[in-house]
Amino acid sequence: MDPAYSLSKSQLLDWLNTLLQTSLTKVEQCASGAVYCQIIDSAFPGRVPLKKVNWMAKVDYEYVHNYKILQRAFDQCNIAKHIDVDKLCKGKFQDNLEFLQWMKAFYDSAVPTDVALNYDPVARRQGCQLPPWAANSAPPSLINKENHAPRNGGGRPPTAGRTAGVRAKPLNAGSAPVGVARQPPPQVDLSRFVTVEEYEELEESAVCLERERDFYFGKLRQVEILLQEID
C-alpha cells in the first residue's frame, strides 16, 4: 500500500499548505472541491480553469459546480478515479481524509520534481475571490504582533526623556506648572478579538447548522405531506 494512505490529518494539511501556500486547518475545508481542483492543477498545470472554481462555495450546489470542473479535469488527464461527490459534499472528515490521501498518493506517483518546483499556486489563484485560508496572508499571530507593535518614529529606541515622562514639581506661589506625569497606556483586552482560524470555524459551524436545519425541515415537510394524504 502506498505510504500516503497512512498519513495523518496533520501531515496531509502540512503537505497541502506547503504545496498550495494556504493556511488550511481542517481536512473538512477541502469539501468544497476547490482545493482538490488546485491539486490537479499543480500536477497538470493549465488543465484546470481555476478562475471558474468557486473558492467561496458555501452550499451543496456550489460544491457540485467545483466537482464538475474536477471531473472534467480527470477526464482530460485520463485519471481513472471515481469521485463520490455526494459523500465529499457533506463535509465529513473521514470521506475527505481518504480522498485527500488518494490525492497525495497520485501526486507523488504522477508529478515530476521539476513540475512541482516550478508551480506557483498563488499566481494561479490571482483574480479569484478567496477565503482567508487561501489568500496567502500572514499567520494571525504575526498579524497581531505587527498591529500591536509600538511605533516610536521608525523603530528607533526611545530616549530616556520620551519614556520616563516629566515629573510634576511642587508648585510655589505664583509659579506655573512645569509638566505633567505621563499616565501608562490603557490595557487592551485581546481576548475579545477573534483570530482568523476561530472566525473560519464559526463560519463553518454556521453553514453546518444551516444544512442540518434544511435537512430536518425537509423531513418534517415529508411527514406533513404523508399525514395530509392519510387524511
TrEMBL record:
Domain EB1 C-terminal as annotated: residue spans: 184-231
A GO biological process held by the record: cell division
Record Pfam families: CH (PF00307), EB1 (PF03271)
Keyword tags: Cell cycle, Cell division, Cytoplasm, Cytoskeleton, Microtubule, Mitosis
Chain spans, region Disordered: 143-163
GO MF term list: microtubule binding
Domain Calponin-homology (CH): 6-108
Subcellular location: Cytoplasm, Cytoskeleton
GO cellular-component term (any): microtubule
Domain of life, source organism: Eukaryota
Location (main, coarse): cytoplasm
Sequence similarity: Belongs to the MAPRE family.
PANTHER family: MICROTUBULE-ASSOCIATED PROTEIN RP/EB FAMILY MEMBER
Protein name: Integrator complex subunit 11
